[in-house]
Amino acid sequence: MPAQQKKLIFCIAGVLSFACALGTAAAIGSQVWVRGTILCTTGALLVNASGPELHKFIGDIQYGLFSGQRVRQCGLGGRPLQFSFFPDLLRTIPASIHVSVILFCAVLIVFALVGAGFFMFNAFGSPYETLHGPVGLYLWSFIACSCGCLIMILFSSEVKIHHLSEKIANFKEGTFTFKTHTEQFANSFWTILVCSLVHFLNALLIRFAGFEFPFTKSKDSGTITGAVDLMY
């Protein structure tokens, strides 16, 4: 492939990596990773609510990685409440999984920026044979894509398996019991999926530029290197 086309491909991949870093940073700061509704089962059972009457006992909940908001409905109107994961919910949620999600988000940002820098370096500079060249580009893209997948797996397990929404809804609730009525992932969560796909696409762009993986040295280059070593 001509050098100009390779530069163009590396520039596109670098811009995509930088955009993923910005998107991940915005997703971390967002309060909307999950949206849902919560049902006040205690209040609904007390009045034997059914059908349209249940809407008086269904509140809203939304949260991100650091904070969120819930609106509890127990038949007397909505009562909003702001909450923070640190330190309010630290003993209630699966803290190890939640902290791991935040750490992998930080790692994803770092390697997305590193990948963007090396893509631009390979486009406009003189790439080295090792980490600055195609081997490094594959490595940074693979690490970033893996981090994105781990974020989605860990956060999904926290929400679905560990019932994160119900734990948040029942935080400091002694009288009423809440149950998840509906639950869905919001745009910030799907941003991580898009970033993972973009890093996978970057690996395909590297291959499209003509760099194969795994890399093997030709016999001729080894012979030439050996001859040069003998000269010295």
TrEMBL record:
Any one biological process term the GO annotation gives: sensory perception of sound
Annotated GO CC locations: membrane
Its membrane topology: Multi-pass membrane protein
Transmembrane regions listed in the UniProt entry: 97-123, 135-155, 189-209
InterPro entries registered for this protein in UniProt: Clarin (IPR026748)
Pfam family, one: Clarin-2
Protein's cellular compartments: Membrane
Chief subcellular location: membrane
Keyword line: Membrane, Transmembrane, Transmembrane helix
Family to which the UniProt record says this protein belongs: Belongs to the clarin family.
Protein name (database record): CLRN1 protein
Organism listed in the record: Pitta sordida (Hooded pitta)
